[in-house]
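It would be a great kindness if you could assist me with a short task in structural biology. A protein sequence and the structure tokens that stand for its backbone fold form the material at issue. I should value your view on which stretches of the chain appear to form regular backbone elements. The record follows directly beneath this note.
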Amino acid sequence: MSTVAPVVDIDWARIRADFPLLRREVHGKPLIYFDSANTGQKPACVIEKVDAFYRNHNANVSRAVHALGSEATEAYEATRVRLAKHLNVASEDLVLTSGTTFAINLVAYSWGLPRLKAGDVVLLTRMEHHANIVPWQLICERTGATIRVADLHPDGSLDLDALYAAMTPEVKLLGVAHVSNVLGTINPVAAICKEARKRGITSVVDGSQALPHMAVDIAAIGCDFYAFTGHKMCGPTGTGALWARRELLASMPPFLGGGEMIKEVRYDGTVFADPPHRFEAGTPNIAGHVGLGAAVTYLDDIGMDAISAREATLLAHLTEEMTAIDGVRIIGTAQRKAAVVSFLVEGAHAHDLATLLDLEGVAVRSGHHCAHPLMAFYGVPATCRASLAFYNTHDEIEAFAAALRKVRRLLG
């Protein structure tokens, strides 16, 4: 007898109605928003939570004893607790940030800069976002360490044998995407981090594209750092967090200095606050993180397993429709994928293709998707990317396919 609980039937039309922007038109046609990997749309409850904060509770956090200050601090810290429960970690190990880019830079400068030296290696994969490449390049330039790259199979899955073979004693840090923003590939990060830990390699997982699509249990993954962005998971822009092992956070110097992250300041020295506040200098995006807390609550109320199942059916439908169109090349066909499809049309530049699709009301992203090395691996300058979320529909997929066929005819 199966021990897996069945996914409860959900009225996805009702869920879609929670997103005000999805009701608008573009160029006189109903919007088909297939760019959720770029940023997710926001349900009304998130928008209303941010609005209510500014209307009724606006004050700075952790600085005032008056009622508004206490309310703001309570609401802000409640998001930290909400996120921790969502990710199965302790709230005191979560640093609230402006997103993944800030979080990985924090690791690079607070962990990497004091520790890396000439002869050390930072191991990355070919599918990394620039946010998990450029910070390490900057640190390597300053420390003398070097970057090593693990390649992929042609289908966009990681070559795990090559990755593990690259984990030599010189490697001090591994950076790996949980889910590729270009290919949709879901990497087996728990197995990868286990191999890294066996070899004494510190692991940094970029979870930006994972949290919108699936349940993420950081404790089960076994990484050392996990970074993610709020705006891709129905939250406001300028939000996110870094989770880190407590012993690592306790050993790291601050990334930025200023107010809030201190216990005592004298001109002859400063005593820093305990983590995580040690890494949260200055006034944060309070309203944004209050909105992120609402977004996490919204996702949990639906259920991440239900969201994953919904998106799997949408991805299968989208892939079937696109595969049936002559001249369409899908890039990234790994067996385990999130609802992200990068593609090209024979004889068409990605930007031209996206522009013509926009005239049909379809929003897709075109370009290198902040992944120049991955584009080079596939020998293309750019791709179009259709990225779905649970609020998309099967009708939209069919309308997109019709628009793509029309554009294909226009482009000859």
